Amino acid sequence: MAIPLRDNMLVVKDLRKSFGGVKAVDGVSFDVPRGTITGLIGPNGAGKSTVVNSLSGFHGVDGGSVMFDGTDITNWPSHKVAQRGLIRTFQLARELRSLTVFENMLLASNDQPGQTSWQALFLRKKIRDSERDLLGKAVDLLKRFNLFHVRDEYAGNLSGGQKKLLDLARALMADPRLMLLDEPMAGVNPTLAGQLQEHIRDLKDEKGITFLLIEHNLRIVESLCNHVVVMAEGTILAEGNMSALRENENVVRAYLGG
User: Fold this and answer.
1) Which of 2, 99, 121, 173 is deepest in the core (most CB within 10 A)?
2) What's the CATH code of the domain at 216?
3) Both 82 and 115 in a single domain?
4) Who wins on pLDDT, 127 or 205?
5) What range does the domain containing 192 cover?
6) pLDDT > 80? residue 129
């Protein structure tokens, strides 16, 4: 049963996930306020990516709950989570290498009519209208992310930075309400990192998209994030803004290195 939540887009309670005898996530609880950019940081092995994989349905959890915009989505499959409006990206861009940039964009949209033989036979006008809208949406996003000039290039031939841009643009084809970004700045040059930051800010302000961001560059986290959650050894160590966290002895000891 859906529970209306005014302030939090995502509510995670007592999340637990083990691999064999290793507790990768052990009782994690935090909220992501609606319309914000929330940071999730911690040293390597802290359990951040396991949390994101659990929230997005890429693997099940052993216990706890995940509430997304008032609906319990705990252990939903990834495609159902995505259809609901929770979209994630990966540390390494996962483009479809043998398809063009434009084809990658078109495949990412949810709820395309014409996917069944019944629809193809009886919903032809709706299919044509939907295809026209999707084409226009893909063109607009490729222009926004400066990828329109490589729209006919195979996605596997793009540079690392262009693949990161395609990853973000493609995710937007699915009309996300919450985006989980797993190290979006990893491996990109400072200029592109600055562009990605501006894109994220603009998407929050213009489209009202909520973000949960994993990032190791703490300057970027401090610049982007309204609120920051710190993990260590599979648990939540602290929460707050970066200024306060820099003064937290436990955080300094575990992550910031003094």
Assistant:
1) 173
2) 3.40.50.300
3) no
4) 205
5) 8-95+171-256
6) no
